[in-house]
Design goal:
The structure is a homodimer of 452-residue chains. The first copy, chain A, is mostly helical and 452 residues long. Chain A folds into three domains: 138 residues, MgtE N-terminal domain-like (MgtE N-terminal fold, Alpha Horseshoe), CATH 1.25.60.10; 120 residues, CBS-domain (Roll); 171 residues, Orthogonal Bundle (Tetracycline Repressor, domain 2), CATH 1.10.357.20. Chain A is 68% helix and 6% strand. The first copy, chain A, contains 23 helices and six strands. The first copy, chain A, has a three-stranded mixed β-sheet. A three-stranded mixed β-sheet of chain A has the order 4-5-6. The mean pLDDT of chain A is 87. Chains A and B meet through helix 1, helix 3, helix 12, helix 13 and helix 15 of A and helix 1, helix 3, helix 12, helix 13 and helix 15 of B. Chains A, B: Belongs to the SLC41A transporter family. Chains A, B: InterPro entries: CBS_dom, CBS_dom_sf, Mg_transptr_MgtE_intracell_dom, MgtE_N_sf, MgtE_transporter, SLC41_membr_dom, SLC41_membr_dom_sf. Chains A, B: GO terms for molecular function: magnesium ion transmembrane transporter activity; metal ion binding.
Chain lengths: 452, 452
């Protein structure tokens, strides 16, 4: 629990704000909110209950609204925007970076969207329309169009004088882009390089041409990999002709990296990535019932397998008592392998070239752990129930199921990936259902053969 | 599957390398490896089997060794370093950034460590000894000591001339730090600000004093939160007296963010964060058997609960057939809530101030999903088994277990957090065991009362 310090701070703040809200001390709350940076106010809103959020939002200085919207999680951002007046939205988004701007506007109902758009100035409207022309999770939607470009035939000294005249650079500027007359990207010059170069040199003499620009259509996960691969702080985005469209900065990429990494965790429990922890109960119930519904089918399938073995179950209650152990162990083992493979796929480690090796390895792990727990449980059950036949039955079933668990843990995610289905979403329930069925079949089947 | 493009590239490369290796075309492999950036070579090594890794490593140009070590996952880095000759390690780490340097040296056996240290030059040795004096996951171990500092009383023009004389800046430099004669941090000047300021201004007139430096003792997760909170590209690190020690850049922070996000995923399956997908089977078997051993105990506990109901089980095989459904549904529901709470804790959303509200909400979700699936299964079972008594039994048990699942899904992680135990590691098995037991108790208990 490394984040305890920061967390405790947030929660003592949240408690103070809640106490003040409940006590009706709105002026006090307003003052507290005003003194916090946007990130912390966003965290407060995200940690609040749905009923407290609109009240808090009313108490926030409207000048801060834009900045806070930029920081908020999508689900919560959407619900707040839906409640805002169109003119108010137009004010809040003034000066927002184009990627956030496009997101906010994209989540407005059509009628409000037109109203907001018409209340914006020409330049902003153009930026928004451009940003909205890209897919939601593309490089185009992530980029900012506010970049400084240079021609290759000017000197370092001229550039430095130009920058001094121009004044403040766009936020997060670390590089300047060099383009020709048609806006075609020729290369880049980092500020670090610019200030450490001799002033009489021409830009064409120092520019870095090996820049590997992103295309506007690339998926944001690819953008994140590109940044990690090259340890970038910012990267240019170009169109099909190589013309510069904008740039992506690492702070937006960090959000994508976190979301991608969280995606597997949430999907494996059948949850939506953007699920709001404090969503109203009815909304959560609806979202989760789909997953539970699938599990009902899986559980009924397992029960119908047991149903095939009614004979042995009606003869020996002990078999019924022990029948949950083997499926349980198989489920845990299969989910271990599955999790490893899902992470391996996400990191780009697992693919066609090594799938067979991995399958062999995980089958071997299943074999060895199968042997280990088959013997262990055979001993435990023989002592507990005083019948070595039962011990043999559970050992056989355990071994079979652990071996199959290792194989399923590799095969299921790789097959799903080939079918272009997200392994993190469907994989866990599929392998668990599989090991439940194999576990019951092998245990009840062996019991029927050996004990009846 | 957004990363498919990049992945396919990696895997067609890996396949080509493997084919060439198996064909004995070492010169060809050497040429292929040489043409790839360090990141891609690291990915190739990570995606290779344990037996292929040493061969590949031998074929890599030794000049690239350092860069590739910097990119490798820890488990694999360790195994490669252990195989290297001390002189070779000393060569590879030359010019490495101090954080990576400290890591590599820290993972060497003591005797080799001394040998490597003695073969380094004075300055490098000093940097290493300093970096090694911090805890492994601290800001001190992440930082680089290669920073450019300024005095406040010089002009922008002088600084620009100094930088031009100095030549190439340290990699990733985006800011210069302003310190007094005792190295105490006074503030920072970004390169963007420097180049856009009038040249006659003094540094003291433009410096940004509101920098919130990190302390060298802070945990890396706190560092990551600090970067996300302030959308930083780099941040200064100071000692207890406010003296500048070094700086941390965002590319190292990105690794921490990914690791932290992956931690929950891996822990919930009882896996180590750094688990190598292609580790030898015996090593994987040993690591995973601990978790499986815990699950054996949990499964035996559940079986001993069933054992208490031997009477009803020996009278009615149908009860045995249906008894796995209720525990299965409870387990899924509890893990949904648990996952949500674990993510909420990691993001800093869930704490004392809203724990009670969240408990109420999740209990309500459990109540509603309990009602829904109680009715559904009652209908299914009544039709299937032609006995409405069984329908009532499963409905009662389902409702009780779903309600308890919601409560356990909140209470377990919060209690573990209070006890300073990682909820991601222990939580999943605890809630599953709990819902298994409650599910069996309520189903078999109700069946005993109603059907006997």
């Amino acid at each position: 629990m490394p984040q305890i310090l920061e967390q405790e701070q947030t929660h003592s703040r949240l408690k103070a704000v809640n106490d003040a809200l409940n006590g009706g001390m709105f002026v006090h709350v307003r003052r507290m909110l005003h003194s916090l940076p946007a990130y912390d106010v966003a965290l407060l809103l995200e940690s609040s209950t749905p009923s407290a959020r609109p009240v808090l939002w009313q108490l926030i200085d409207p000048d801060q609204h834009g900045e806070i919207l930029e920081e908020l999680a999508e689900d919560i951002k959407d619900s707040i925007i839906r409640e805002m007046e169109p003119e108010h939205v137009a004010e809040a988004i003034e000066g927002m970076e184009s990627d956030d701007l496009a997101y906010v506007l994209g989540s407005l109902p059509e009628s409000v969207f037109q109203q907001v758009l018409s209340s914006m100035d020409e330049q902003d409207r153009h930026r928004v329309e451009q940003a909205l022309s890209y897919e939601e999770d593309s490089a185009g939607a992530m980029m900012n169009t506010d970049v400084i470009t240079l021609r290759p035939d000017v000197s370092v000294d001229v550039v430095l004088r130009y920058l001094r005249l121009r004044g403040q650079l766009p936020e997060g500027t670390d590089k300047l882009y060099v383009v020709d007359k048609q806006d075609k990207l020729l290369g880049e010059v980092s500020l670090a390089l610019l200030v450490s170069s001799q002033s009489e040199l021409e830009i064409s003499e120092i520019l870095e041409v090996d820049v590997a620009p992103l295309s506007a259509e690339q998926h944001d996960s690819e953008v994140a990999q590109h940044f990690e691969r090259h340890d970038l702080i910012s990267a240019p985005v170009v169109d099909g002709n190589g013309c510069l469209l904008g740039r992506i900065t690492v702070d937006d990429v960090v959000d994508v990296i976190r979301e991608d990494a969280e995606h597997s965790l949430m999907s494996m429990a059948g949850l939506d990535d953007e699920e709001d922890t404090f969503a109203p109960a009815l909304k959560s119930t609806k979202r989760r019932s789909v997953w539970l519904g699938l599990n009902v089918c899986a559980a009924l399938l397992a029960a119908s397998v047991s149903n095939m073995f009614e004979d042995i179950l009606s003869q020996l209650a002990t078999v019924a008592i022990l029948m949950t152990i083997v499926p349980s162990m198989g489920g845990v083992a299969a989910n271990q392998t599955l999790t490893l493979v899902i992470r391996g796929i996400a990191l780009g480690h697992v693919g066609d070239s090594n799938a067979r090796w991995l399958l062999g390895k995980e089958a071997l792990v299943g074999f060895m752990n199968g042997m280990l727990w088959a013997f262990t449980l055979a001993a435990v059950v023989t002592v507990w129930k005083g019948d070595w036949h039962l011990g043999v039955v559970i050992a056989v079933a355990m071994f079979v199921n652990m071996l199959m668990a290792g194989i399923a843990g590799v095969m299921v995610p790789l097959t799903l990936k080939r079918l272009k289905i997200d392994p993190a979403l469907a994989g866990s329930m599929m392998v668990t259902t599989f090991t439940d069925i194999i576990g019951l079949l092998s245990f009840l089947g062996t019991a029927t053969v050996m004990l009846r």
